[in-house]
Amino acid sequence: MDSKTTPHKPLSEALNDELLETIDEKLELEFDDQRLDSVLGPTDRAAAKDTLDRRTYFQELLRLQRELIKLQDWVVHQKLKLVILFEGRDAAGKGGVIKRITQRLNPRICKVVALSTPTERERSQWYFQRYVQYLPAAGEIALFDRSWYNRAGVERVMGFCTEAECEEFFRTVPEFERMLVRSGIILLKYWFSITDQEQNLRFLMRIHDPLKQWKLSPMDLESRRRWELYTKAKEDMIERTNIPESRWWVVEGVDKKRARLNCIHHLLQQVPYQDVLHDPIVLPDRDHKPDYARHPVPADLYVPAVY
Fold first, then answer.
1. Structural domains of the chain in order of their starting residue, each with its CATH number
2. How far apart, in Å, are the Cα atoms of 36 and each of 39, 43, 56, 159?
């Protein structure tokens, strides 16, 4: 197993937990500190003792997201180049933490890279070539939702590359990453770890939730069957690519909320950022043109007021 074993939840309880998780995701987009206390009452606590209560989770998430904004300002101010790789099994929680990191950041500065299956032309290129074009310039952050480590994971397990190609990857990737670091890139690598039971449960949730069925691909379903092969591939990958210049960090991912907070907290510790002073923002007066008259908008241009 990837992670510590946990008792298996009944499907009905798991479905309820997943529904609350979906609601929480929507609430996160709306809450801020001023509204938090008025919305969440003192008795609003998670039922499970080993799960973070929602108040603590939201308060910590918002606090960490404020720090992420400071980190973003520092990256821009210092013209840093930050690359963060998120790897792990399907449904391990990579997308969830990426969403929370980017939720309040400037998308022009912090960009998510989630590449699709390589084209025939890309397959004929140097393996790292399709990833290099998405590396950040000065003052930018790039979050890779899966990365060049596809070769050591899904490609190897599913037979999309030969063992010779995989061995060449293992020979090349340490020097490739050392080159990135020497060029001034700050490189962080996270592996999200979940148990066999937890992945099975999350796949069942996706099967039963019409809003999440799109997340399940035939490749995901096949990955369940090949759990042990993925485990061996992951262990080999971390052993052979955990170098001092770009080491791996494992995130305990069975508890989604704790995984998100722990990952963001750790990320913030890896870059020694400081507050950046900004000039006060003053809203200018609007110019009024006495000869301007607003033209009426035709009624058929409006979206129907259904609600």
1. 11-301 (3.40.50.300)
2. 5, 14, 11, 49
